[in-house]
Design goal:
16 helices; PyrdxlP-dep_Trfase_major; 13% strand; globular; seven-stranded mixed β-sheet; alpha/beta; 2-aminoadipate transaminase activity
Length: 445
């Protein structure tokens, strides 16, 4: 029987994936808002916004993405960018325009997965077609995905036509949707290699799939070795959208879409984001029904963020505040894990011990409890009920619509938990790890 929560312990939440409110750039947001309202044409700015977002903001994002990623395929242009009110809304709008409950045969989610995306797929009428794909050692098990895509396609009764027709305003419907967070993944923290990204795009082209890539953590990156700089260890892995347009044989519609958000780098409540894809796909995004009716779905917020982006305030906030803070927290957490948890059989998934020339980033890391005497769920329960520390147990990261997902996870992610360093200060993170160590010892008795 697990003891009740100790009244002497303050709660520590290592589960929630939110940025600390003190890191929100309130002064910069205030300055940007004031600058907006000092404009002589501010009344015009408060009208319905252009469906795809203001041309100035789309151009500013394109320039920022070009600077951030230096894509080998060439500069990002504004015609590749549409404004959303965040990554969740971006995914929902993409599904409204480019999927069809009748024609789209599968949604493929890498497991462990960001489970809160599942209701968005269900809302699009794709319930019953949501499947898991093992993550594997390199971001995704391409062999498994390829076999399953072929199996589904071969067993689909043909001919089959979309109910959403070209005449009805749907110029392109994809047969499959693949959902992935390829860089600093939520929840695993892993990053796909370039070769796996190329392999995924080749599969997508073969099976008429749209790969929706949540690229919300990419710019939050730092060297794992103290004293090293990003200039020394290299830039972020190329995004899927950049690889797609640089590979021979790309189509006018493309097979990838980058889903971005300012939630993690400005504030969740700002509700502004963007999608990037081939210009034909982006143009069609402007015909989503809610956007045609109401204009840009993040118009006012986007005008504020545009000021921050154009002035350099956002880039400065990322480089001078977010990255140093998150890097310090990540270092504190990983050092505490190696000191207090590694002797108990715990490991950070993907940790090979080598730090030179490596890059970390995002919000999350994933622990494996396979080397412990107690099970992952028991450890998570003991940590919460006896030591008042909340972690995200592996069971919540299965694909709930796929009954085989948890079976596949029995040897991998179900034996672990996700931890987030973005919310708590260093001293709290270390305290939380020490409590988890105590919970492991108690749960192993």
């Amino acid at each position: 029987m697990i003891a009740k929560i100790s009244e002497t312990l303050e709660p520590i939440n290592l589960q929630g994936g939110w940025p600390t409110p003190r890191l929100h750039p309130t002064k910069e947001i205030e300055a940007a808002s004031s600058a907006l309202f000092r404009q002589k044409d501010v009344q015009q700015s408060l009208r319905y916004g252009p469906e795809l977002g203001s041309s100035n903001f789309r151009g500013a994002i394109a320039d920022w993405l070009t600077e951030s990623y230096a894509p080998k395929a060439g500069s990002v242009v504004s015609e590749r960018v549409a404004i959303t009110n965040g990554a969740s809304n971006g995914l929902a709008c993409v599904l409204q325009k480019f999927s069809d409950p009748c024609y789209t045969q599968g949604v493929w989610m890498v497991e462990p997965t960001y489970f809160l995306a599942c209701p968005i797929f269900r809302d699009a009428g794709l319930g019953g077609k949501i499947f898991g794909v093992p993550e594997g050692k390199d971001g995704i098990d391409l062999e498994y995905l390829g076999n399953r895509l072929r199996e589904v396609d071969e067993n689909t009764l043909l001919p089959m036509e979309p109910r959403k027709t070209v005449e009805g305003g749907y110029p392109k419907i994809y047969r499959h949707i693949v959902y992935i967070i390829p860089t600093f993944s939520n929840p695993s923290g892993g990053t796909m290699s370039v070769e796996s990204r190329k392999g995924l795009i080749e599969l997508a082209r073969k099976h008429d799939a749209l790969v929706v890539s949540d690229d919300v953590y990419d710019v939050l990156r730092w060297p794992t070795l103290e004293g090293e700089t990003l200039e020394k260890v290299g830039t972020c892995t190329p995004r899927l959208v950049d690889i797609d347009r640089n590979l021979e044989g790309f189509s006018a519609w493309g097979n990838t879409l980058s889903n971005g958000s300012f939630s993690k780098i400005v504030a969740p409540g700002i509700r502004a984001g963007w999608v990037e894809a081939m210009p034909a796909l982006i143009s069609a995004m402007g015909t989503v029904g809610a956007t045609v009716s109401g204009g840009c779905q993040a118009h006012f917020a986007s005008l504020v963020v545009e000021k921050m982006l154009s002035s350099g305030a956002l880039s400065s906030h990322i480089q001078k505040t977010l990255i140093p803070t998150y890097r310090t927290r990540w270092l504190s957490m990983t050092k505490a894990i190696r000191k207090h948890l590694y002797p108990l059989g715990v490991r950070i998934v993907g940790d090979e011990g080598e730090t030179v020339g490596k890059i970390a980033g995002g919000f999350f890391l994933y622990l494996s409890f396979k080397g412990c005497s107690a099970s992952g769920p028991t450890i998570a329960k003991t940590a919460l009920e006896k030591y008042n520390v909340k972690i995200a147990p592996g069971g919540i990261f299965s694909v709930p619509d796929d009954p085989e997902s948890k079976i596949r996870g029995e040897d991998t992610y179900l034996h672990g938990a996700r931890l987030c360093w973005a919310w708590n200060e260093e001293v709290v993170l270390v305290d939380g790890i020490e409590r988890i160590a105590k919970a492991i010892l108690d749960a192993s008795k």
